[in-house]
Amino acid sequence: MNKDTIIITGAAQRLGLETAKHLIEQGYHLVISYRRDKPGVEQLNALGADCIQADFANTQGIQNFIATVKARYSQIRAIIHNASDWHPENQKLAPDILMNNMMQVHVHAPYQINLALQDALFSYADAKQTCADIIHLTDYIVETGSSKHIAYAASKAALANLTLSFAKKLAPKVKVNSVAPSLMSFNEWDDDAYRQKTINKSLLGVVPGEIEGVEALQYVLNSRYLNGRTISIDGGRHIR
Q1: Taking residues 22-38, what's their average pLDDT?
Q2: DSSP assigned state of 132
Q3: C-alpha–C-alpha distance, residues 64 and 32, integer Å
Q4: What percent of the chain is helix, strand and coil (3-state, nearest 5)?
């Protein structure tokens, strides 16, 4: 059975959780980060995942996560950067704090983790005579911008640019790509008006569910030739 190690940050819910469960079913050993205890953490614990509490909103949380992973694992098959935060511009957070928060989670954390764990990725690539992977979860709004989530969109655009830089830096041993989804599924508290408005934003007019993102991530992991690219999953929303 395949026991290669894959890291998914922010895997306690939604796409991260579904991807982790999918990869565990395939025989991978999963290491996941989570900010707060949620039912998804209990599910992954029960399935044998190594669940590490880490708050990427502060530098110490990032460093603690890196130190824990380096102490436990010398080879890493892939890192999937899924950890995310999502806040609009409003009166609750000052603009400088909001931008710092978005950049901390979406840029500082992946940047530091990629650099700190590159030797473990290289070690896997050398041992298996194949490529390791880094996958950044960005967002469709990197292409369109957002008037209500300016800091969020800017930080995800910076993460998309990290994809290009790390693809150059880490080749040929590590492939670095992005997956850029729009909304995959609704929250249970989303009302009918919001749901319909959101559905109407895409040309295809469907809500695909997390499986669409899981399959895109699996495609990137399987590919032998995809590098420095972004797979967009938005139903044509970017050109609506």
Answers
A1: 97
A2: E
A3: 14
A4: 50, 15, 35
Q: What type of residue sits at position 174? A: V
Q: How far is CA 126 from the centre of its chain?
A: 25
Whole-angstrom distance, CA of residue 77 vs CA of residue 45: 20
pLDDT on residue 2? 61
Identity at 129, one-letter amino acid code? Q
* Catalytic entry in 152, 194, 219, 225: 152
Give the pLDDT confidence score for residue 33 in this predicted structure: 98
d(CA 171, CA 224): 12
- For 24, the token pair is 């565990």
**Please, what sign has the CA dihedral across residues 34, 38, 42, 44?**
negative
Residues facing residue 79 across a β-bridge:
7, 134
Contacts of 94 (CB under 8 A, 6+ apart): none
Dist. CA 188–CA 194, nearest whole Å:
12
- The pLDDT of residue 1 is 46
DSSP letter string, 193-237? HHHHHHHTTSSS-----HHHHHHHHHHHHH-SS--S-EEEESTTG
95 contacts 112 by C-beta, under 8 angstroms: no
CA distance 3 to 174: 19
Whether 152 is catalytic: yes
DSSP 104: I
Token pair belonging to 222: 């399987």
Residue 26, amino acid: Q
For residue 142, give the amino acid letter.
Answer: V
